[in-house]
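This section describes the prediction task in plain terms. A model, or a person checking by hand, is given the sequence of a single protein chain and must write out its three-dimensional structure as a string of tokens. No templates, partner chains or ligands are provided. The sample shown here is typical of the held-out split.
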Amino acid sequence: MSRRRELDDRLHALRDINGILRAMKNLALMEQQKLTKFLTTQRRVVESIEAAAEDFFTFYPEAARQLGKGTAVWLIIGSERGFCGDYNERLRESVERHIRERAPYQPRLVLIGRKLGTKFAQDRRVAASLAGPTVAEEVPAVLLGLMAQLRELQASQKPGVRLEFTIVHQSPVSEGDGVRIHEPMKRVPGRPARMSYPPLLNLDPFAFATDLIDHHLFGLLHEVFYSALMAENLRRFQHMDQAIQRLEKDVAELALRRNSLRQEEITEEIEVIMLSAEVLKQP
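The expected answer:
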């Protein structure tokens, strides 16, 4: 009897956990549907900025040369919450591999997401580690905090030295290792001009280029944060779905064991009744 009661208690606990996992899975699905609308709109904004930048740098290449090389800063966007499998571990491994392949020297790292921050604990390359968004509505506030941190990092540089960003995040589309890398305003030389005449400017080309890069970075960060949050919720949805399947299998096995124990208890009760009846029949 005590063994069956233990199984009953465990079955009850597993069914409660199953309900919680299903709720988390549904929330992840709802967040994906919401983020799809944000991503579509933000992608158009970034594409329009990149088209304007392409026209500008085609006719004003000296502005790009005046910008020169800067301090390499990698913005790595991980997850704020868990329950998304090896999401952050895979991101860290991919970042390390790409840094070895791309960066001639060790860049400064700015981490977004507390779960990702634990993967780079005690890493001397980390310049800042910030909390990340958990839902789409938190992205603007997180971005404001990030921009404030980047301004402080820029202020710590020597005069005339700018920050050169590389943005790394998980992609909602499974391509290779699932990691995407953005290098804002890294133009391909020799691209033919789309227009016959250069754009008319009311600003100095160098000042315009500086503001354009900042504007592009801010718009691209919106898109990247929404894309990373979409990838995180997609991984969480998949992780929850697999966990629910394993849990349902365990529940089914425990239910069979409990039924088997109950049958044994019934058989024992019948045997006791029959023995008692035999005893009563004796004179």
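For orientation: DSSP finds six helices and five strands in the chain.
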